[in-house]
Design brief:
The chain is mainly alpha-helical. It contains 16 helices and two strands. It has a two-stranded antiparallel ribbon with strand order 1-2. A hairpin with a 5-residue loop joins strand 1 and strand 2. The two termini are about 30 Å apart. Keywords: Membrane, Transmembrane, Transmembrane helix.
Length: about 450
Protein backbone atom coordinates (compact mmCIF):
# COMPACT_ATOMS: atom_id res chain seq x y z
CA UNK A 1 0.00 0.00 0.00
CA UNK A 2 1.34 3.39 -1.06
CA UNK A 3 1.03 6.31 1.32
CA UNK A 4 1.17 9.76 -0.20
CA UNK A 5 1.49 12.91 1.87
CA UNK A 6 -0.72 15.87 1.17
CA UNK A 7 -0.05 19.57 1.44
CA UNK A 8 -0.19 21.45 4.71
CA UNK A 9 -3.25 23.41 5.65
CA UNK A 10 -2.84 26.98 6.91
CA UNK A 11 -3.45 25.77 10.45
CA UNK A 12 -0.51 23.38 10.31
CA UNK A 13 -2.69 20.29 9.71
CA UNK A 14 -1.64 17.76 7.13
CA UNK A 15 -3.73 15.35 5.12
CA UNK A 16 -2.75 11.96 3.81
CA UNK A 17 -4.30 9.97 1.03
CA UNK A 18 -4.25 6.24 0.62
CA UNK A 19 -3.64 5.80 -3.06
CA UNK A 20 -4.92 2.26 -3.45
CA UNK A 21 -7.14 0.71 -6.03
CA UNK A 22 -9.63 -0.39 -3.38
CA UNK A 23 -10.51 0.31 0.21
CA UNK A 24 -9.11 -1.84 2.96
CA UNK A 25 -11.59 -4.41 4.35
CA UNK A 26 -13.87 -2.78 6.88
CA UNK A 27 -12.35 0.63 6.18
CA UNK A 28 -14.43 1.77 3.20
CA UNK A 29 -15.00 5.52 3.25
CA UNK A 30 -18.52 6.66 4.02
CA UNK A 31 -18.71 8.27 0.57
CA UNK A 32 -17.00 5.55 -1.49
CA UNK A 33 -19.97 5.61 -3.89
CA UNK A 34 -20.61 9.34 -3.98
CA UNK A 35 -20.78 9.28 -7.79
CA UNK A 36 -24.19 7.62 -7.43
CA UNK A 37 -25.42 10.51 -5.30
CA UNK A 38 -24.45 12.81 -8.17
CA UNK A 39 -26.19 10.45 -10.60
CA UNK A 40 -29.47 10.47 -8.65
CA UNK A 41 -29.35 14.24 -8.11
CA UNK A 42 -28.79 14.84 -11.82
CA UNK A 43 -31.61 12.43 -12.66
CA UNK A 44 -34.03 14.38 -10.46
CA UNK A 45 -33.09 17.69 -12.08
CA UNK A 46 -33.30 16.36 -15.62
CA UNK A 47 -36.65 14.74 -14.84
CA UNK A 48 -38.00 18.07 -13.61
CA UNK A 49 -36.75 19.87 -16.75
CA UNK A 50 -38.22 17.30 -19.10
CA UNK A 51 -41.48 17.04 -17.12
CA UNK A 52 -42.14 20.70 -17.71
CA UNK A 53 -41.72 20.18 -21.44
CA UNK A 54 -44.54 17.64 -21.35
CA UNK A 55 -47.04 19.75 -19.41
CA UNK A 56 -48.56 21.41 -22.47
CA UNK A 57 -48.69 18.13 -24.40
CA UNK A 58 -51.20 16.88 -21.83
CA UNK A 59 -53.02 20.04 -20.72
CA UNK A 60 -53.95 20.87 -24.33
CA UNK A 61 -56.63 18.15 -24.13
CA UNK A 62 -58.24 19.73 -21.06
CA UNK A 63 -57.82 23.47 -21.76
CA UNK A 64 -60.78 25.50 -22.97
CA UNK A 65 -60.94 25.59 -26.80
CA UNK A 66 -59.85 29.24 -27.21
CA UNK A 67 -56.53 28.43 -25.56
CA UNK A 68 -55.93 25.21 -27.45
CA UNK A 69 -52.91 26.32 -29.51
CA UNK A 70 -49.12 26.77 -29.27
CA UNK A 71 -45.81 24.95 -29.73
CA UNK A 72 -43.92 22.49 -27.54
CA UNK A 73 -40.66 23.08 -25.69
CA UNK A 74 -39.35 22.88 -22.07
CA UNK A 75 -38.91 24.31 -18.63
CA UNK A 76 -37.49 26.80 -16.26
CA UNK A 77 -38.91 27.27 -12.82
CA UNK A 78 -40.36 30.75 -13.31
CA UNK A 79 -41.64 30.20 -16.84
CA UNK A 80 -43.54 27.11 -15.69
CA UNK A 81 -45.09 29.05 -12.81
CA UNK A 82 -46.06 31.89 -15.17
CA UNK A 83 -47.53 29.78 -17.98
CA UNK A 84 -51.13 29.76 -16.64
CA UNK A 85 -51.02 33.56 -16.23
CA UNK A 86 -49.36 34.04 -19.63
CA UNK A 87 -51.99 31.83 -21.25
CA UNK A 88 -54.76 34.14 -19.98
CA UNK A 89 -53.16 37.12 -21.73
CA UNK A 90 -52.91 35.36 -25.07
CA UNK A 91 -50.68 33.37 -27.40
CA UNK A 92 -47.77 35.85 -27.52
CA UNK A 93 -47.21 35.73 -23.76
CA UNK A 94 -47.66 31.98 -23.68
CA UNK A 95 -45.04 31.65 -26.42
CA UNK A 96 -42.54 33.75 -24.45
CA UNK A 97 -43.00 31.57 -21.36
CA UNK A 98 -42.52 28.42 -23.42
CA UNK A 99 -39.39 29.90 -25.02
CA UNK A 100 -37.80 30.29 -21.60
CA UNK A 101 -38.71 26.67 -20.93
CA UNK A 102 -36.82 25.78 -24.12
CA UNK A 103 -33.69 27.56 -22.90
CA UNK A 104 -33.54 25.27 -19.87
CA UNK A 105 -34.33 22.24 -22.04
CA UNK A 106 -31.24 22.89 -24.19
CA UNK A 107 -28.93 22.02 -21.28
CA UNK A 108 -30.14 18.45 -20.74
CA UNK A 109 -28.01 16.34 -23.10
CA UNK A 110 -24.77 18.30 -22.62
CA UNK A 111 -25.25 17.63 -18.90
CA UNK A 112 -25.71 13.91 -19.58
CA UNK A 113 -22.51 13.77 -21.65
CA UNK A 114 -20.45 15.72 -19.13
CA UNK A 115 -21.64 13.75 -16.09
CA UNK A 116 -21.06 10.40 -17.82
CA UNK A 117 -17.55 11.44 -18.92
CA UNK A 118 -16.47 12.78 -15.51
CA UNK A 119 -18.50 10.86 -12.91
CA UNK A 120 -18.83 7.34 -14.40
CA UNK A 121 -16.14 4.68 -14.54
CA UNK A 122 -15.64 3.11 -17.97
CA UNK A 123 -17.63 0.05 -16.82
CA UNK A 124 -20.58 2.20 -15.71
CA UNK A 125 -21.31 4.16 -18.90
CA UNK A 126 -24.37 2.01 -19.61
CA UNK A 127 -25.82 2.62 -16.14
CA UNK A 128 -25.25 6.38 -16.26
CA UNK A 129 -26.56 6.72 -19.82
CA UNK A 130 -29.51 4.51 -18.93
CA UNK A 131 -30.67 6.50 -15.92
CA UNK A 132 -29.88 9.98 -17.26
CA UNK A 133 -31.41 9.49 -20.70
CA UNK A 134 -34.21 7.60 -18.93
CA UNK A 135 -35.29 10.91 -17.45
CA UNK A 136 -37.24 11.37 -20.68
CA UNK A 137 -39.42 8.46 -19.60
CA UNK A 138 -39.38 9.36 -15.90
CA UNK A 139 -40.72 12.79 -16.77
CA UNK A 140 -43.68 11.28 -18.60
CA UNK A 141 -44.29 8.72 -15.85
CA UNK A 142 -44.54 11.67 -13.46
CA UNK A 143 -46.34 14.14 -15.72
CA UNK A 144 -49.06 12.02 -17.31
CA UNK A 145 -50.78 10.64 -14.16
CA UNK A 146 -50.25 13.86 -12.18
CA UNK A 147 -51.64 15.96 -15.03
CA UNK A 148 -54.60 13.64 -15.52
CA UNK A 149 -55.45 13.81 -11.82
CA UNK A 150 -55.03 17.59 -11.51
CA UNK A 151 -56.83 18.39 -14.77
CA UNK A 152 -59.95 16.60 -13.52
CA UNK A 153 -59.70 18.09 -10.01
CA UNK A 154 -61.31 21.31 -8.77
CA UNK A 155 -57.97 23.13 -9.29
CA UNK A 156 -58.03 22.53 -13.06
CA UNK A 157 -55.23 22.59 -15.61
CA UNK A 158 -53.27 25.59 -14.16
CA UNK A 159 -52.41 23.47 -11.10
CA UNK A 160 -50.41 21.15 -13.39
CA UNK A 161 -47.89 23.94 -14.03
CA UNK A 162 -47.69 25.01 -10.38
CA UNK A 163 -47.05 21.42 -9.25
CA UNK A 164 -44.28 20.96 -11.80
CA UNK A 165 -42.65 24.27 -10.92
CA UNK A 166 -42.56 23.27 -7.24
CA UNK A 167 -40.90 19.95 -8.09
CA UNK A 168 -38.32 21.81 -10.21
CA UNK A 169 -37.39 24.24 -7.44
CA UNK A 170 -36.91 21.43 -4.89
CA UNK A 171 -34.78 19.29 -7.22
CA UNK A 172 -32.50 22.19 -8.16
CA UNK A 173 -31.92 23.03 -4.51
CA UNK A 174 -30.36 19.56 -4.13
CA UNK A 175 -28.35 20.11 -7.33
CA UNK A 176 -26.86 23.39 -6.09
CA UNK A 177 -25.91 21.84 -2.75
CA UNK A 178 -24.36 18.60 -4.04
CA UNK A 179 -22.95 19.00 -7.55
CA UNK A 180 -19.39 19.84 -8.64
CA UNK A 181 -18.13 19.76 -12.23
CA UNK A 182 -15.48 17.09 -11.58
CA UNK A 183 -14.78 14.51 -8.84
CA UNK A 184 -11.41 16.16 -8.14
CA UNK A 185 -13.21 19.28 -6.91
CA UNK A 186 -15.58 17.49 -4.54
CA UNK A 187 -14.78 17.11 -0.84
CA UNK A 188 -17.06 14.07 -0.52
CA UNK A 189 -15.17 11.92 -3.05
CA UNK A 190 -12.70 9.53 -1.40
CA UNK A 191 -9.26 8.87 -2.88
CA UNK A 192 -10.06 5.24 -3.76
CA UNK A 193 -13.21 6.27 -5.61
CA UNK A 194 -11.31 9.07 -7.35
CA UNK A 195 -8.67 6.63 -8.59
CA UNK A 196 -11.36 4.30 -9.97
CA UNK A 197 -12.97 7.22 -11.78
CA UNK A 198 -9.63 8.16 -13.34
CA UNK A 199 -8.67 4.65 -14.48
CA UNK A 200 -8.56 4.31 -18.26
CA UNK A 201 -9.23 7.98 -18.93
CA UNK A 202 -6.92 10.51 -20.51
CA UNK A 203 -4.77 12.59 -18.23
CA UNK A 204 -6.43 15.68 -16.82
CA UNK A 205 -4.69 18.81 -17.99
CA UNK A 206 -4.41 22.13 -16.24
CA UNK A 207 -5.52 23.82 -19.46
CA UNK A 208 -8.83 22.69 -20.94
CA UNK A 209 -8.33 20.60 -24.08
CA UNK A 210 -9.45 22.13 -27.35
CA UNK A 211 -12.23 20.27 -29.06
CA UNK A 212 -11.01 18.54 -32.24
CA UNK A 213 -13.96 19.85 -34.24
CA UNK A 214 -12.77 18.63 -37.63
CA UNK A 215 -12.13 15.07 -36.43
CA UNK A 216 -15.42 14.92 -34.53
CA UNK A 217 -17.53 16.32 -37.36
CA UNK A 218 -15.95 13.96 -39.91
CA UNK A 219 -16.31 10.84 -37.73
CA UNK A 220 -18.48 8.25 -39.51
CA UNK A 221 -19.15 6.55 -36.18
CA UNK A 222 -20.58 9.69 -34.61
CA UNK A 223 -22.61 10.52 -37.70
CA UNK A 224 -24.04 7.01 -37.62
CA UNK A 225 -25.01 7.52 -33.98
CA UNK A 226 -26.54 10.93 -34.71
CA UNK A 227 -28.58 9.52 -37.59
CA UNK A 228 -29.83 6.75 -35.29
CA UNK A 229 -30.68 9.42 -32.72
CA UNK A 230 -32.73 11.30 -35.33
CA UNK A 231 -34.88 8.27 -36.09
CA UNK A 232 -35.22 7.38 -32.43
CA UNK A 233 -36.13 10.92 -31.36
CA UNK A 234 -38.77 11.27 -34.07
CA UNK A 235 -40.46 8.22 -32.57
CA UNK A 236 -39.93 9.60 -29.06
CA UNK A 237 -41.61 12.88 -30.06
CA UNK A 238 -44.50 10.91 -31.53
CA UNK A 239 -44.89 9.26 -28.13
CA UNK A 240 -44.35 12.42 -26.09
CA UNK A 241 -46.50 14.81 -28.11
CA UNK A 242 -49.24 12.63 -29.52
CA UNK A 243 -49.76 9.77 -27.07
CA UNK A 244 -52.44 11.69 -25.12
CA UNK A 245 -54.14 12.63 -28.40
CA UNK A 246 -54.03 9.06 -29.74
CA UNK A 247 -55.36 7.56 -26.50
CA UNK A 248 -57.97 10.27 -25.84
CA UNK A 249 -59.16 11.36 -29.29
CA UNK A 250 -58.66 8.19 -31.33
CA UNK A 251 -59.03 5.31 -28.85
CA UNK A 252 -61.58 7.44 -26.91
CA UNK A 253 -60.42 6.93 -23.35
CA UNK A 254 -61.43 9.71 -20.94
CA UNK A 255 -58.92 12.30 -19.67
CA UNK A 256 -58.32 10.57 -16.33
CA UNK A 257 -57.61 7.17 -17.92
CA UNK A 258 -55.55 8.84 -20.64
CA UNK A 259 -53.14 10.15 -18.00
CA UNK A 260 -52.37 6.69 -16.67
CA UNK A 261 -52.52 4.80 -19.98
CA UNK A 262 -50.18 7.30 -21.66
CA UNK A 263 -47.68 6.78 -18.84
CA UNK A 264 -47.77 2.97 -19.03
CA UNK A 265 -45.60 2.48 -22.16
CA UNK A 266 -42.97 4.95 -20.99
CA UNK A 267 -42.84 3.30 -17.55
CA UNK A 268 -41.92 0.02 -19.24
CA UNK A 269 -39.53 1.91 -21.51
CA UNK A 270 -37.71 3.36 -18.49
CA UNK A 271 -37.29 -0.11 -16.98
CA UNK A 272 -35.86 -1.38 -20.27
CA UNK A 273 -33.45 1.56 -20.36
CA UNK A 274 -32.01 0.55 -17.01
CA UNK A 275 -32.00 -3.15 -17.91
CA UNK A 276 -30.32 -2.39 -21.23
CA UNK A 277 -27.68 -0.12 -19.70
CA UNK A 278 -26.76 -2.43 -16.82
CA UNK A 279 -26.87 -5.66 -18.85
CA UNK A 280 -24.69 -4.08 -21.54
CA UNK A 281 -22.06 -3.25 -18.91
CA UNK A 282 -22.23 -6.74 -17.39
CA UNK A 283 -22.28 -8.71 -20.66
CA UNK A 284 -18.53 -9.12 -21.12
CA UNK A 285 -18.65 -12.23 -23.32
CA UNK A 286 -19.52 -10.20 -26.42
CA UNK A 287 -17.49 -7.64 -28.33
CA UNK A 288 -18.44 -4.10 -27.26
CA UNK A 289 -19.21 -2.95 -30.80
CA UNK A 290 -21.40 -6.01 -31.40
CA UNK A 291 -23.33 -5.18 -28.24
CA UNK A 292 -23.96 -1.65 -29.53
CA UNK A 293 -25.45 -3.07 -32.74
CA UNK A 294 -27.59 -5.63 -30.91
CA UNK A 295 -29.06 -3.19 -28.41
CA UNK A 296 -29.65 -0.48 -31.01
CA UNK A 297 -31.44 -3.00 -33.22
CA UNK A 298 -33.60 -4.04 -30.27
CA UNK A 299 -34.47 -0.38 -29.75
CA UNK A 300 -35.10 0.85 -33.28
CA UNK A 301 -35.66 -2.35 -35.27
CA UNK A 302 -37.99 -4.16 -32.84
CA UNK A 303 -39.89 -0.96 -32.14
CA UNK A 304 -40.41 -0.45 -35.88
CA UNK A 305 -41.89 -3.96 -36.13
CA UNK A 306 -44.52 -3.21 -33.47
CA UNK A 307 -45.33 0.18 -35.03
CA UNK A 308 -46.07 -1.71 -38.25
CA UNK A 309 -48.39 -4.08 -36.36
CA UNK A 310 -50.06 -1.13 -34.58
CA UNK A 311 -50.69 0.52 -37.93
CA UNK A 312 -53.25 -2.17 -38.82
CA UNK A 313 -55.18 -2.29 -35.52
CA UNK A 314 -58.51 -0.47 -35.63
CA UNK A 315 -60.10 1.74 -32.99
CA UNK A 316 -62.59 -0.96 -31.95
CA UNK A 317 -59.71 -3.12 -30.68
CA UNK A 318 -58.52 -0.43 -28.27
CA UNK A 319 -57.18 -2.88 -25.67
CA UNK A 320 -55.07 -4.68 -28.29
CA UNK A 321 -53.90 -1.32 -29.59
CA UNK A 322 -52.73 -0.31 -26.11
CA UNK A 323 -50.82 -3.59 -25.65
CA UNK A 324 -49.02 -3.20 -28.99
CA UNK A 325 -48.39 0.47 -28.24
CA UNK A 326 -46.65 -0.54 -25.01
CA UNK A 327 -44.29 -2.83 -26.96
CA UNK A 328 -43.66 -0.28 -29.73
CA UNK A 329 -42.81 2.54 -27.34
CA UNK A 330 -41.09 0.64 -24.53
CA UNK A 331 -38.53 -1.13 -26.74
CA UNK A 332 -37.07 2.26 -27.64
CA UNK A 333 -35.58 2.15 -24.14
CA UNK A 334 -32.77 -0.11 -25.31
CA UNK A 335 -31.26 2.90 -27.11
CA UNK A 336 -29.30 3.67 -23.95
CA UNK A 337 -26.97 0.76 -24.79
CA UNK A 338 -27.01 1.64 -28.48
CA UNK A 339 -26.22 5.02 -30.01
CA UNK A 340 -26.10 6.84 -26.65
CA UNK A 341 -23.41 4.54 -25.27
CA UNK A 342 -21.59 4.52 -28.61
CA UNK A 343 -21.08 8.30 -28.44
CA UNK A 344 -19.70 8.29 -24.89
CA UNK A 345 -17.38 5.32 -25.52
CA UNK A 346 -16.08 6.53 -28.87
CA UNK A 347 -15.54 10.19 -27.99
CA UNK A 348 -14.60 9.68 -24.28
CA UNK A 349 -13.66 13.05 -22.73
CA UNK A 350 -15.37 14.85 -25.62
CA UNK A 351 -18.60 12.96 -25.03
CA UNK A 352 -20.39 16.12 -23.94
CA UNK A 353 -19.99 17.55 -27.46
CA UNK A 354 -21.38 14.41 -29.08
CA UNK A 355 -24.33 14.40 -26.69
CA UNK A 356 -24.90 18.11 -27.36
CA UNK A 357 -25.56 17.24 -31.00
CA UNK A 358 -28.25 14.82 -29.82
CA UNK A 359 -29.74 17.79 -28.00
CA UNK A 360 -29.71 19.76 -31.25
CA UNK A 361 -31.27 16.82 -33.09
CA UNK A 362 -33.91 16.61 -30.38
CA UNK A 363 -34.70 20.30 -30.85
CA UNK A 364 -35.07 19.74 -34.60
CA UNK A 365 -37.45 16.81 -34.05
CA UNK A 366 -39.50 18.88 -31.59
CA UNK A 367 -39.98 21.53 -34.28
CA UNK A 368 -40.44 19.06 -37.13
CA UNK A 369 -42.70 16.41 -35.59
CA UNK A 370 -45.84 18.52 -34.99
CA UNK A 371 -45.90 19.66 -38.63
CA UNK A 372 -45.32 16.14 -39.97
CA UNK A 373 -47.78 14.32 -37.71
CA UNK A 374 -50.53 16.96 -37.83
CA UNK A 375 -50.33 16.94 -41.62
CA UNK A 376 -50.78 13.16 -41.62
CA UNK A 377 -53.51 12.77 -38.97
CA UNK A 378 -55.57 15.85 -39.86
CA UNK A 379 -58.81 13.82 -40.00
CA UNK A 380 -57.95 11.49 -37.06
CA UNK A 381 -59.01 8.43 -39.06
CA UNK A 382 -57.71 4.86 -39.10
CA UNK A 383 -55.91 5.53 -42.39
CA UNK A 384 -54.25 8.64 -40.95
CA UNK A 385 -52.79 6.84 -37.93
CA UNK A 386 -51.81 3.85 -40.09
CA UNK A 387 -49.75 6.08 -42.38
CA UNK A 388 -48.22 7.88 -39.40
CA UNK A 389 -47.03 4.66 -37.76
CA UNK A 390 -45.74 3.16 -41.03
CA UNK A 391 -43.70 6.28 -41.87
CA UNK A 392 -42.08 6.27 -38.43
CA UNK A 393 -41.37 2.53 -38.69
CA UNK A 394 -39.62 3.03 -42.03
CA UNK A 395 -37.46 5.85 -40.63
CA UNK A 396 -36.50 3.71 -37.62
CA UNK A 397 -35.38 0.79 -39.82
CA UNK A 398 -33.34 3.01 -42.14
CA UNK A 399 -31.59 4.89 -39.32
CA UNK A 400 -30.77 1.66 -37.49
CA UNK A 401 -29.19 0.19 -40.63
CA UNK A 402 -26.90 3.22 -40.96
CA UNK A 403 -25.87 2.96 -37.31
CA UNK A 404 -25.04 -0.75 -37.55
CA UNK A 405 -22.70 -0.10 -40.48
CA UNK A 406 -20.62 2.56 -38.70
CA UNK A 407 -20.89 1.66 -34.98
CA UNK A 408 -17.55 1.47 -33.13
CA UNK A 409 -17.03 1.22 -29.36
CA UNK A 410 -13.27 1.84 -29.47
CA UNK A 411 -12.00 5.27 -28.42
CA UNK A 412 -11.35 7.46 -31.44
CA UNK A 413 -7.68 8.29 -32.23
CA UNK A 414 -8.29 11.97 -31.44
CA UNK A 415 -9.21 11.12 -27.82
CA UNK A 416 -5.58 10.00 -27.17
CA UNK A 417 -6.88 7.07 -25.11
CA UNK A 418 -5.55 3.58 -25.80
CA UNK A 419 -7.91 0.67 -26.26
CA UNK A 420 -8.16 -1.91 -23.47
CA UNK A 421 -8.37 -5.67 -23.35
CA UNK A 422 -11.40 -7.20 -21.60
CA UNK A 423 -9.29 -7.97 -18.52
CA UNK A 424 -8.48 -4.28 -18.13
CA UNK A 425 -4.83 -4.49 -19.31
CA UNK A 426 -3.82 -1.85 -21.80
CA UNK A 427 -2.91 -2.92 -25.32
CA UNK A 428 -0.65 0.11 -25.71
CA UNK A 429 0.68 2.65 -23.31
CA UNK A 430 -1.59 5.43 -22.15
CA UNK A 431 -0.97 8.51 -20.06
CA UNK A 432 -1.42 7.83 -16.38
CA UNK A 433 -4.49 9.33 -14.79
CA UNK A 434 -3.80 12.44 -12.84
CA UNK A 435 -3.13 11.66 -9.21
CA UNK A 436 -4.75 14.23 -7.06
CA UNK A 437 -4.07 14.76 -3.38
CA UNK A 438 -6.63 17.16 -2.06
CA UNK A 439 -6.56 19.13 1.13
CA UNK A 440 -9.88 20.13 2.69
CA UNK A 441 -10.36 23.88 2.42
CA UNK A 442 -9.53 25.90 5.51
CA UNK A 443 -12.25 27.71 7.34
Amino acid sequence: MELQKGTDKPGGEQTTALMTGQEAPGKAPACARFRFVILITAALCLTSLLSNMNTYNFTKICMVPKNDSTTSELDTKMSTILIPTANEYGFKYFLVARTFQGIAFSATFPIIGAITADWATLTEHGLFCGLLTGCTQLSQIFTMPVSGTLCTSRWGWPSVYYAHATFTIISFCFWILLYKDTPEEHRMVGQAELKRLQTGKSKKKAVREKLPYKQILTSKTLWGAWIAAFGDLLAVQLVTMFNPQYVNDYLRYNVFKTGFLAALPVAVQFCLKLIGGVSSDMLTCLDETLKLRIYNSLALGASAFFFIVLAFIRRENNVTAMVILVFAESLLGFNTAGFNKCITLHSRQFGHFGMTQIMNIWAVTILLEPFVVNAIISANTFEDWRNCFLIHAGILLLCNAVFCVYADAKPAPWTCVADEKPDGEEMISRPAATEVVRTPPSH
